Prior knowledge:
- The chain is an alpha+beta fold.
- The protein folds into three domains: about 5-250, Glycoside hydrolase, family 65, N-terminal domain (Beta-galactosidase, Chain A, domain 5); about 255-290 and about 545-720, no CATH class; about 330-520, Alpha/alpha barrel (Glycosyltransferase), CATH 1.50.10.
- The protein is built from 17 helices and 33 strands.
- Strands 6, 7, 10, 11, 13, 14, 15, 16 and 19 form a nine-stranded antiparallel sheet that branches. It has a four-stranded antiparallel sheet with strand order 1-2-3-4. The chain has a four-stranded antiparallel sheet with strand order 5-12-18-17, with no helix packed on it.
- Helix 10 (about 455-475) packs parallel to helix 12 (about 525-530).
- The longest helix is centred in the last third of the chain and has 22 residues, at about 475-500.
Amino acid sequence: MDEAGVTQQYYIATRSSPADDLTRVLKYGKMFAVFDRHGDIGVAGRGEEGIFYQGTRFLSRLAVSLWGYRPLLLSSTIQSDNFVFIADLANLDVSRNGEVRVPRDTVHLLRSRFLWQGICYEELKIFNYGLVPLVIPLRIGFGADFADIFEVRGTKRERKGQRLEDTLEKDKIQLAYEGLDGVVRRTNVHCEPPATKVSDSELQFEVPLAPKEQATFHLLISASYDSIAQNGSMGYTRALAAANTELSAAVSSVCRISSSNNRFNEWMKRSVADIEMMTLGNPEANYPYAGVPWFSTVFGRDGIITALELLWVSPWIAKGVLEYLASMQAQEHNSDKDAEPGKILHEVRKGEMAALGEVPFGCYYGSVDSTPLFVVLAEAYYTRTGDLPFIKHLWPHIERALDWISRHGDVDGDGFVEYARHSTRGLTQQGWKDSGDSVFHADGKLAEPPIALCEVQGYVFAAKLAAARLGEVLGDDRKCAALQDEAENLRLKFEEAFWCPRLATYALALDGNKRPCRVRASNAGHCLYTRIASSERAELVAQTLLGEDFFTGWGVRTLGRNEVRYNPISYHNGSVWPHDNGLIAAGLSRYGFKDLAGKILLGLLDVSGFVDLHRLPELFCGIDRHPGKGPTLYPVACSPQAWAAGTVFMLLEACLGITVHGAKKQVLFDQPSLPEGIPQLSIKGLRVGNATLDLFLERKGRSVDVHVTDKAGDVDVLVN
């Protein structure tokens, strides 16, 4: 395949430039919804709007009108807990024969919407604030294209299934589609009270209202795979109460972090809410889906990194991720899935195209880094919790992962883990920068596989040391010693093969001929996170990544701006990714550069003040910061994205040098630091085993005082 073809593979298409690019997002379990600020679907936008369920768009159009016109938007938001969307709308001027009969803003329309247990619940309240009675024509247009998520992303299909006959009643409508996979998918629309008139594309109501009177309508939309539609008999109000009870229970398990900086508090609240939204209702317990709209499913790498980000505050997410990924660990060779024994999952997809094999991602293993990161997370989880029974349960999976690293990850036996896809339709690049043009030489030529990424060698180094520590805990001293030796041999080979003195950083990768890709990229920052870098070279990497070539003022770019493929508005070759910055900051902290970690924290804090809802997106453009101008957004970035939401926790961990030792019942602060923008920090309800802690931290010059304000149970706080 030529370079253009590689770059375009599984590309997320952008077909138009909307007048309003702000969308609203809701998610619960397998269902998510993307719509505009009015609450409408498919009226404007880039084509990604809809109500989706298990990889299929079950509703592609939803439009509300008053007197035949789209209402005027007054305000629109998602509540701070991410659960309910609210929009205030008003009528436009209604004229007849050149005379305004109903002035604008006479009728107020309040829309509220949430998702819960496979149903989209919507309430519409109409208020007449005029002085005379009105009969208000309310119209709700709808439609379902049953497009697969990959079709929505831009993938063309030669054939599709067929639409079946619609079922129409005054209070119920069912739209149906039979896919080429033989599955019948149905969209069920239920309205209360019944409509005055129903067609296959619209509900019509005539709403008589006296002055100061109001009327309420409920719309329930569900997705089903059989002839039995969910009727939502619980109703809007009862469903909302039950959902709020579930949400409150989930939020109460997370420690509460606040500061003297209000922008930081807003960022933190939204991040907590985003993690809950990406996790709540998923059948894979405590496993956050990657991002909405394109990646609302299980991803191995994303789940592991999100769990690492959140480990010190929410270790049960790590346990959920480890449990599920262990259950899905590859058992055999399958080239169509890029699967090999012991390998950890890349992604799981539902939907017609995945079921038919039109895309290989139904159950796909094409990531080179998920397997070593799985081992890293397992040991980190044990350190955090001291949960030895779970580690004993997990140990056979860890051993299989280590075996994959040695046998299948390092096919040529040179000590480095490489990748080359086996599936003809799989991912060409299988590191976290998985766009087709992300790994190249200094002249811009794409690297030939098999490719050994610098950060992957760091992950493998960390995995071997992590497994050695677990082996020691389990009493396998021989295994422990062997893994330590392997890790040290890898470190020495890595320094020799990857270090580029002229670049003052590590090469991005080695190509299939073992030639280094002498390109300065953010990947080297991950080598600090895993501590494979020597102290002297770590300092040079730190200076490189926080220099003008990389640091935009908002964050660290993925690629230095003097590299031949640098493009600050591309996906991976010059953009800024929050999770990437979190890992870099954590790496900087591990070598003592907490001031630089704080610089990254403050940059992303400023980003949170500019973006909608204080929500960090998957990525944003790497254009330099200018006074009075916010960051430049990337048009098809997922927002929310789990590992972007988790970044703030890793940034705090980096600055505070905090480590929770569950088995030792200790919380350790290693030379804690807080940047100038956050002089005080409060942590309440931090759980360590059966104990809980409340802490107050205060910046004093270049040091931080740590105060225990409340403690329940056996736990010690140590400050170095």
